[in-house]
Amino acid sequence: MHIAIEGMDGSGKTSTAQKVAEILGFDFIEKPLHLITDSNNHFENYMNVISNVNKMDPDFRARFYGLGNYLASKKAKKIDIVTDRHLVSNYYWNCVDDEHYFNMLVNECGVPDITFVLKVSADERKRRIAKRNLNDPDLRRNVFDDSCYEKMKSFLEIYHMNYVFIDADNKNLNEVVQEIVEVIKDNNTLTNSDNV
């Protein structure tokens, strides 16, 4: 089974994905390409690579992160995984007008069994990031806009993905994780849903 946890920076994706994986006994995958650039859970080589990749044009970035999407999807055919970001994030950040590439990528990877999008307001995300690190470069980027969720939802709908938007604005980590685990355990809820 492949569970993807999506959302904007500051939404709690990584902590949520780690905890869900731990509770379910699944493997947690944060940066799939790290598996071929580093070892022993260090990200030094990978972080050096992406600092350069993120300066490239969106088509190049889409293909780079697409390789990570592909590796995660191949891993999910062998074991149960929870990924911190997957296809939705790649599309959100890197699709400008090359829909053809994303058609091919989804065809190659397939889609996660279910995708959870953690929905947190721009103001709350900014507050969380500042609390975590006042020098975080995201605080200087133009990433605090609530319209991001419409682009994510449009991608999920286009590719008929099972998804649930979780309003995580006023919930702590354990509350968000509990909601996700309950949805996963109740197979009847594996259908599109804007808010839980």
Helix percent reads 40-55%
- Overall shape: it is globular
Number of strand segments: 5
Outline the biggest β-sheet.
Answer: 5 strands, parallel
SSE series = EHEHHHEHHEHHEH
State Rg.
16 Å
Tally of individual helices: 9
Overall pLDDT: 88
Q: Given the helix and strand composition, which structural class is it? A: alpha/beta
**Fraction of residues in β-strands:** 5-15%
List the strand order in the largest sheet: 2-3-1-4-5
Q: In whole angstroms, how far apart are the ends? A: 21 Å
- In the predicted model, the low-confidence regions spanning at least 5 consecutive residues are none
What do these coordinates show?
It is built from nine helices and five strands; from the N terminus they run E-H-E-H-H-H-E-H-H-E-H-H-E-H. With 196 residues, it is α/β, with parallel strands linked by helices. It has a five-stranded parallel β-sheet with strand order 2-3-1-4-5, with helices on both faces. The chain is globular, with a radius of gyration of 16 Å. The model has no long low-confidence stretch (mean pLDDT 88).
